Amino acid sequence: MSESANLLDLIQQNLDEFCSSRLAEFQVISPDLAPILDYSQALMSGGKRLRALFAYWAWAGSLPSVSPAQTPAQLSASTEAMVGITSALEMFHAAALVHDDILDQSDTRRGAPAVHKRFESLHAASQWAGSAERFGVAGGILVGDLLLSWSSEMFGKALQLAPSPAIQDSCRNEFGKMRIEVMAGQYLDVLEENAAMTRPISEAVGRANRVMLYKTAKYSIEAPLLIGAAFAGADDDLMRGFSSFGIPLGMAFQLRDDVLGVFGDPSVTGKPAGDDLREGKRTVLVGLTRENLAPNVGKIFDELLTSRELDGEQIAFLQQCMVDSGALDKSERMIEDLANQSLEALSHLEISEEARVSLQKLADKAIRRDS
Questions:
Q1: Fewer beta carbons within 10 Å, N or C terminal of the chain?
Q2: In DSSP terms, which residues pair with 109 in a beta bridge?
Q3: Residue 76 included in any domain
Q4: How far apart (Å, rounded) are the C-alpha atoms in residues 53 and 284?
Q5: Domain of residue 31, residue span
Q6: pTM (2 d.p.)
C-alpha cells in the first residue's frame, strides 16, 4: 500500500472512531441526536482528501531539510499527530460544505442529498409539525457548527504531540488564519451573488478573483501546505515557497471547479447540470462572459443568472454565451498558465524528491479532473 493510501485509511479510521465516540456521548443525552452523527459520518466518508494529502506531503517533504535529526520515536509521534491534523482538516472541510450547501441552496453533495436536505427528509418522513425546509436548514447549521467545534478539538489534541511549543504556535496560527480567510471569502461570495448587478461589469473579474483567492485558493491548497510545513518546523523561506506553489494551484483548482459547475457531467460531478448557474454564482467564468457580451444580451444573461429558477433551455443559452464570448477558452488558458506557474514554484522548493513527485501528482489531480 502506498504512503498516501495508508494515510487516507488512517484518516477514515480516525474520523469513524471520533464519530462513534461522540455518538455514545449523544446517546446518553437522547437517542434523537443519532442523525447528527449519521449524517456527519456519511459526509466525511467521501471526497478527494486533497487538503489532507497536501498537508501531509508538505510535512513529510520538509522534514529532511528542517528536522534531519528526529529520532524514530519522535517521528512516530509526529506521524500520529499528522493523522490527527489531516483528519481535523477534513472535518473542517465537511463543516464548510454543510454551511456552503445551505448558503447556496444546494440540494446535493457528492451525488447524495446535502445534510440539510437529509434533515428535511427526516422531518417529512416523520410527519412532524412545522416547516420541513426550516427544520432542515436548522439541522444543517447545527451540524456545521458542531463539525467546526470538533475539528478544532481534534486539531488541538494532535498538536499535543508537536515537537516543540514554537511548532504548536505556528500550526495554530496557520489553522486560525485559514478559518478566518475562508469565512471572509464565503461572505464575499454571497455578497457578490446579491450585489453584482449594482457594481461595474468591468470589475466583475477582479471581484471574482478575490473571492476565489480567499474562499478556495488559500483555504484548499495554501493553508494545508502551510500547516503541514509548519508542523515540520519549516522556516520563512520554505513557507513562502509553499505559498508560491499553493496559491496559483488553488486558483487553477477553483477555475476548474467553475468550469465543471457549468459544463460538468452530472453523473460524474454529483451535481445537476449547470448547478452554478441555478445558484447565481458570480465566478471568474461569469465575469469574463459579461465583459464580452453586447449590452442587450448581457441584460438577458444577468436576468437569467439572478432568477434561480432556470429550465434546460435557459441553461443552454447561458452556456452558449460563455462559449461564444470566448470566456470558456480564456478560463482554460488561465488554468494552464496558473498550473505552469505553480509547478515552476514547486520545482524550486527545497523538499524531498518523493514529496515533490507526490505534490506534482496531487496538482495534476486538482486541475485535470472531471468532478
A1: N
A2: 112
A3: yes
A4: 27
A5: 1-46+71-162
A6: 0.94
